[in-house]
Amino acid sequence: MKKSLVLLVSLVFVASGLLAGCGKSDNEAKNTPTQEPAATNAATNEPKVNDEPFEITIRHTQVGEAKKFRLAMLEDVIKQTEAAVPGLKIKLDGVDSEVNRKEKLRGEMAAGKPPEVFDVFGSPDAQLYAKEGLMLDLTPILDELGIKEKFNTLAPFTYQDKVYGLPIGGSIEGFFYNKEYFEQKGLKVPATLDELDKLAETIKADGKVPFAQSSKDAWIPLMTTNNLWSYYAGADITYGFKSGTTKWTDPNVVKAVTKHQEWVQKGYYKKGELGFEYADMRNQVITGEAIMMMDGSWANSVFRDPAQAGDMVGKIGYFNMPPVNAGDKAIVMQDANNGYGFSSAVAEDPRKLAAVKEFIKNMWTDEMQLRGLKDDGVLPAMKISLDQMKSTSDDPLMQDIFKAVSEIGTSFPAFDALVQAEVNTALSMGIQQVIGGEIDPAKMLENVQAAQDAANATAE
């Protein structure tokens, strides 16, 4: 269903007052000052503020213990916004991230009725919804607030040179690890993938699980696979799948998926990973059952929280997935693709538009970006210097993450920001089949390429 883009309309309220003369006797007229009191006239002419109650909904994904700090930040921004906009009441609608992205929001967009504000991935989701005229063009709002140039990147949320969403934070992907265990066993952070292999074998021989993993949701193991193929095939290869200039069946992509399968077959992951939820793999690390875990930098908040990590607080470190060859620069997934979007229908209601503008004004500030970094370990989406980040959080785990950021030679966005939804689905199904031993990597990637060819053929 095609819709035209809804342009923001600037609304100007013109207040007009009618002067009414009061009947007076001649004597009263003689005794009345010729100049009316200024305060009386001003009060008469001022437009009445519309404080009638109205509501907007914010769909968020800050659900569960691991996201409690992010939820607290959102709630504080909501209080500020409600206080600044007369009559406004903001309703919070919390939904699991995967359910929101792949089910609920897609259904609402298909019906043309998303919430006023919603958690959304920039590329390809926001760009697709913007193309259909379902998202609010934020460009004039950002210009008015003077914050457009303050973001590290708005590329994932940009369509035809207009901005349709804002990233809430940045992230990288790498390995969390049990520092205490490494020290006790005399182990070192690996400098190459081969050293990582040998390290995993050593840990397994000691009776521990080398890599914590939960594969019930396919995006979790695909963090590992995505980083592997970016090393073996090059960080640029994923950009070419959608245009057809590169193929999923490239021998080096096959090699990367085969490496992932090899780790599964060698028992480097706990058996039953296809049935484990996201939180399960973090618990494997917290209990000491597993020693390393591939995850996004956002997971640091769990390991810094005594309520979640217990005695493991202060004992967890972080390092980038090491390169193939010693001395090579790290190639790391780094992006700012998760944030908030706004319904294009907001432009039709000046009060809702004012509420959205106030929400943006309060949410995207240096103060909130640094609070997100300090309280929740979310890397800033806005331009904050590395020195300022280091001084904001002296937590040892965060210092490891800052070091990992400084070591990045080449970065790339996650694969699901670069390919169509149906390709993501085929790859997700495929990696779970590979993990389960149902299909070999080459055949799986042939299936993914078939889905890619079909998606490319239907693209405009």
TrEMBL record:
Region ranges (Disordered): 24-48
Cleavable signal peptide: 1-20
InterPro entries: Bact_solute-bd_prot1 (IPR050490), SBP (IPR006059)
Record's keyword terms, sorted: Signal, Transport
Bias (Polar residues): 30-44
PANTHER family in the record: ARABINOSE-BINDING PROTEIN-RELATED (PTHR43649), OSMOPROTECTIVE COMPOUNDS-BINDING PROTEIN GGTB (PTHR43649:SF29)
Protein family: Belongs to the bacterial solute-binding protein 1 family.
Name the UniProt record assigns to this protein: ABC transporter extracellular-binding protein YurO
Species the sequence originates in: Paenibacillus segetis
